[in-house]
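ugh ok fine here u go
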Amino acid sequence: MRSARGLYNDVQMSADTTIPTSAQATAVISTEGLTKYYGRHLGIEALDLEVSAGEIFGYLGPNGAGKTTTIRILTGFLRATSGAARVHGLDRGKETGRVKARVGFLPDSPSLYEQLTGLEFLDYMSRLQNGGRAGLRDELCDRLEHSQADLRRKIKGYSHGMRKKLAIIQATEHDPEVLIMDEPTDALDPLIQQRLFDLLTELRSRGRTVFFSSHNLAEVERLCDRVAIIRRGRLVTVETVAALRGRKTRQMDVVLAQDPPVDALRLPGVLSLERQGRHLRFLVQGDINPVLRELAKLEVEDIVFEHPSLEDVFLDYYRTDEPE
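structure:
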């Protein structure tokens, strides 16, 4: 089996690669006032998004929020009621054919041709995508542990995980400039999930753009440069993962070596404070460094606080239920 870092052997990969400044200025995916109604039922409304080259962009929301509707419009499988969606500046509603070879798409529930073998399916889809990159299919199969024996089997005998792996190979074997994925890790075991994460990181380091929807907040927090949260078809926020974490209120527990003077307990950014002798418990929002600087003036025996997760932040947006 090849090294987990061997997929693109001509490029040095790094999991910590940041988006180049020049890439940040290039909107590879953009929507303006994008709206879709199914009869009287709202799918999405007035959606304005920009996704840059070389960015992994997470699209978050519960089931029915509008994630799949957005993705189907971006991939040309659904027409918007109004507004515009562009990929590489081309209108997805009017110029779908021109961007087909530049986009890879993984649907949430891939519809595969049951009577074909895995190899026949990949060959057929490759012809529709104007061919694949030489050698990339084999490396993808190796990376995702989809063997040549698996490729010779008919798809109707595949498990859910095998179907998802085949669909990922199909979506990426032509080395697309933009990869759009709807719930990409469903049905994958943890090892293959990790290999998929490595693949997406490598694509970003090569300037490719990845747009994926998920309800798995941990994977979004781990992979994404920025995150959009959608609720009932409307965009709630678009921010970096770090900025979203900065909005979260967290609890801190501090044990001091001795009883502090009263004026030492006026800590910046603290929302509430409880004291039991040398034990302090309080809530702090945003940057914790001012609090830490003040605590450093005291003799701290112990300090405990949890790093806020994206899940905590995400749930804050849904905790207060708005009327329909």
